[in-house]
Amino acid sequence: MSTSKRAVVVATVIERTPAEVWADVRDISSHVTWMQDAAEIRFVSDQHEGLGTKFECDTKIGPFSLTDVMEITSWEDERRMGVRHVGLVEGTGEFTLSAVGSGSTEFRWEEELVLPALLTPGAPIASFVIEWVWKRNLSRLAHGPKQRAAVAMGVDQSDHILGRQRLVPRGIRREHDDGVGVGGAIDDLQRRSRGLRRRGVQGHHR
After folding, report:
1. How many Cα neighbours within 13 Å face the side chain of 63?
2. b/e string for 80-94 if b means 16 or more Cβ within 10 A?
3. Which of 6, 10, 72, 113 sits 20 to 30 Å CA-CA off 124?
4. 27: which residues sit within 8 A by CB, 6+ positions away?
5. For each of the chain's 206 residues, which pLDDT tens digit applies?
6. Whose CA is closest to 26, among 118, 147, 107, 136?
């Protein structure tokens, strides 16, 4: 079966110490509060943190959804957390935290994903959309848990971006190298998602 390996890297500087950011990130169940593409997390291991922790994450970007199965493969307090993905989309990922100046943290998120054959022709677009969504996720992480809780009480504009009300808000357009905007990229993923559903793949565990 043909596959495509894609690397996605996003990073931001958060105005909190590594200890403060780690206290937020180490709670895996809370990732759904800042990852808008993560709908629900369920642990499948007795432990909920540290090496060997296993969990399922229901992931949704626009019309495309699947259940991602992950295992924690590295865990260094206030420094890094690594995962291995298994299933429909395979690969590895890692968060790294580095102190910047006095009281700030560079948070880096790297993933190397192996996409299934159906998505291979659209892999560059898929990578573009994932990177776009993850950059917004890091913006939410930077806000901190209290501000995220406050935002959750109102209407979060990032919900629009992920298709919960509309896929792309009016006035927002970012060009891809090929001239494909975010809306066009998500439209392409919609078509590929329909192809997955026709093959009975949607909802299959990764």
Report:
1. 14
2. ebbbebeebbbbbbe
3. 72
4. 49
5. 455 677 899 999 999 999 999 999 999 999 999 998 999 999 999 999 999 999 999 988 766 788 999 999 999 999 999 999 987 778 999 999 999 998 999 999 999 988 765 555 455 666 778 888 999 999 999 988 877 776 666 644 444 434 333 333 333 333 333 334 444 555 555 555 555 555 554 444 44
6. 107
Token digits of residue 190: 């919609």
Provide long-range contacts, Cβ within 8 A and 24+ apart, for 86-91.
Answer: 86/206, 87/204, 87/205, 87/206, 88/116, 88/201, 88/204, 88/205, 88/206, 89/113, 89/114, 89/115, 89/116, 89/206, 90/114, 90/206, 91/5
d(CA 171, CA 180): 15
Tell me the pTM.
0.70
